[in-house]
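Margin note: ligand = A1CAB.
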Amino acid sequence: MKLGFIGCGNMAQAMMGGIIAGNLIPADEIIASDGYKPSLEKTKENLGIHITMDNKEVAVNSELIVLSIKPQFYDVVIKEIAPIIKEDTIIITIAPGKTLEDLENQFGKKVKIVRTMPNTPAMVGEGMTAMCANDLVAEKEMKEVKGILEGFGRVEMVPEYVMDAVVAVSGSSPAYVFMFIEALADGAVLQGMDRAQARIFAAQSVLGSAKMVLETKLHPAELKDMVCSPAGTTIEAVKTLEDRGFRSAVIQAMDSCAKRCKDM
Ligand SMILES: NC(=O)C1=CN([C@@H]2O[C@H](COP(=O)(O)OP(=O)(O)OC[C@H]3O[C@@H](n4cnc5c(N)ncnc54)[C@H](OP(=O)(O)O)[C@@H]3O)[C@@H](O)[C@H]2O)C=CC1
Ligand SMILES: O=C(O)[C@@H]1CCC=N1
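Resulting structure:
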């Protein structure tokens, strides 16, 4: 197998979906293991990958192994696979707070490790993933892994010290954005709009605004100013958001998020 996933939940399925749809690795060269058989079988049915209940089968048969279990299960899974992985296997991690040094110590031997942080928009091919690696991973191997991760969105190489910031700004941020979209829809419902239509108006406005930031490369404050007419409607809304500490709430939420990474 080219690519193996240990843990076949939300992130693993999102990553596999993009990789297969982008023809980066064919489904019959991907294998996934999980402790829960019905969800594995459903993934096999949807994506056509190989499945197993045995993590070791993934470990011995894959060139690249994604550890797609929750952080609290990293210890037990690493203990299980460390004795049997081959020297040239590349381990890809996606958990917050698990540093390259921690991981190397847990494996207890020289292992090629690529530490990444993806996000759930990978499910629709619009993921944002950060990556860094230990010294054993050659530049050519980094490029290969990057190419695979690009199957489900954008990828940036980062120095490891910014990984907690990455979790706050992209790994976890879809949750805050969904809360914002939900709140926008609620606000429109309050003004009398139908719920289903409100959700479309809210989501499309967030999508379009994000695209403007990426495509115009203008500062977000400049784009905000373009919406605020003098004595108009928008500046009234901006005033209320500033009064209620909107930006400060976001920054403080991200600070809590990054602090949690350090405790994991
Ligand atoms: N969700 C997100 O937005 C993001 C998540 N991540 C990271 O991705 C990783 C996976 O998260 P996510 O996909 O959300 O989690 P999920 O709970 O959806 O998936 C994890 C899967 O691993 C299975 N599992 C648990 N223990 C084992 C084991 N010993 N061997 C094999 N499989 C096991 C779980 O089964 P069961 O449910 O039966 O226990 C579950 O199906 C985490 O490290 C998370 O921090 C990173 C970026 C974004
Ligand atoms: O909440 C979490 O811990 C994971 C990591 C990033 C997004 N979800």
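Residues 3-166 form a domain with the Rossmann fold fold (CATH 3.40.50.720).
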